[in-house]
Amino acid sequence: MPTLIDPQAVVAQIKDWGRGLGFQQVGVADTDLAKAEAHLWGWLARGYHGEMAFMARHGSKRTRPSELVPGTLSVISVRMDYRPEPEVQMRKQLADPAAAFISRYALGRDYHKVLRQRLQRLAQRLTETIGPFGYRVFVDSAPVMEKPLAAKAGLGWIGKHSNLIHPRAGSWFFLGEIYTDLPLPPDQPIPDHCGRCSRCLQACPTGAIVAPYQVDARRCVSYLTIELKGAIPEDLRPLLGNRIFGCDDCQIACPWNRFALNTAEQDFASRHSLDTATLIALFAWDEETFFKYTAGSAIRRIGYERWLRNLAVALGNAQPVDEVRLALKSRLNHPSPLVREHVAWALRRTGG
């Protein structure tokens, strides 16, 4: 670990380089996550993580950075804006029962790759300047408390919907971290400005935000359409509407997002017209088409079977017209029992 003659100057340089690499903000946090740890243990004890066993698998390594990466003294936290379109266009797609709504973070290139490459370049630039030091780059890829760390680094506060909010940028951004053994001076956190607002709680289509700052993932559309591997509970299926991969309702409802700007990153622009696609068109994809059009995308992780499962539910919530029923019947004998079960449910819903 090199000796830093002027740690403040080093941090200023890191922030300047970060902006040059396309990050909208860079901050530094210390490693004390005692408050976040208590919140996590309570969340796990309530079973709110559902089938996401990985949330409990690593014990205190998730909340104690120096246990995950020995020697960690500071965390460099970054944010990169990703909103690809104005809010009015999202609302339009969400309101059309024939349209497929995909969470806007997944319309373009997989953010893990984009941020990881930039963070690696940032760490390399620092190495070239001060000499070798210990570090490890993370982008939602290990047991890391990214939002509490970002909050401590001054990138925003954790809102009632559990997303990070910046007062001049809203919440449409990705986070990434560099764990380092450098003793860097931390930034000051931003106070919570949610106040009495409860719009995100009211907007959640499945009532997953069970209390301010408490999300029951078992009811969350993102969990149901992405993390859940089996059947979606029947009582929740009608509430999913046309959401086939994730959900943005709580962000769309948040008044702080009136300050959010569209991203200039072409990597996050919609590919294959996924921002305006119809349910029937996507349901017609065969497996080869699915893997072709989701190459390099976060969507690919759910696989073709769950893709069809989610679309079948959305078609069951669409207008009960002949085109919808015909599309569903085309998958009635699909090899997957999971797909067949959801198709049959959707056909019953649409009178087929």
TrEMBL record:
TRNA binds at residue 229. Its main location: cytoplasm. One of its GO terms (biological process) is tRNA queuosine(34) biosynthetic process. GO terms for cellular component: cytoplasm. It catalyses: epoxyqueuosine(34) in tRNA + AH2 = queuosine(34) in tRNA + A + H2O. It comes from the Bacteria. Binds 2 [4Fe-4S] clusters per monomer. Its EC number is 1.17.99.6. The keyword Translocase does not apply. Pfam families: Fer4_16, QueG_DUF1730. Cob(II)alamin binds at residues 62, 140, 164, 175, 222, 247-248. Pathway: tRNA modification; tRNA-queuosine biosynthesis. GO terms for molecular function: 4 iron, 4 sulfur cluster binding; cobalamin binding; epoxyqueuosine reductase activity; metal ion binding. Residues 185-214 form the 4Fe-4S ferredoxin-type domain. The active site is at 140 (proton donor). It is found in: Cytoplasm. [4Fe-4S] cluster 2 binds at residues 204, 220, 247, 250. [4Fe-4S] cluster 1 binds at residues 194, 197, 200, 254. Keywords: 4Fe-4S, Cobalamin, Cobalt, Cytoplasm, Iron, Iron-sulfur, Metal-binding, Oxidoreductase, Queuosine biosynthesis, tRNA processing. Its cofactor is [4Fe-4S] cluster; cob(II)alamin. Catalyzes the conversion of epoxyqueuosine (oQ) to queuosine (Q), which is a hypermodified base found in the wobble positions of tRNA(Asp), tRNA(Asn), tRNA(His) and tRNA(Tyr). Monomer. Belongs to the QueG family. This is Epoxyqueuosine reductase.
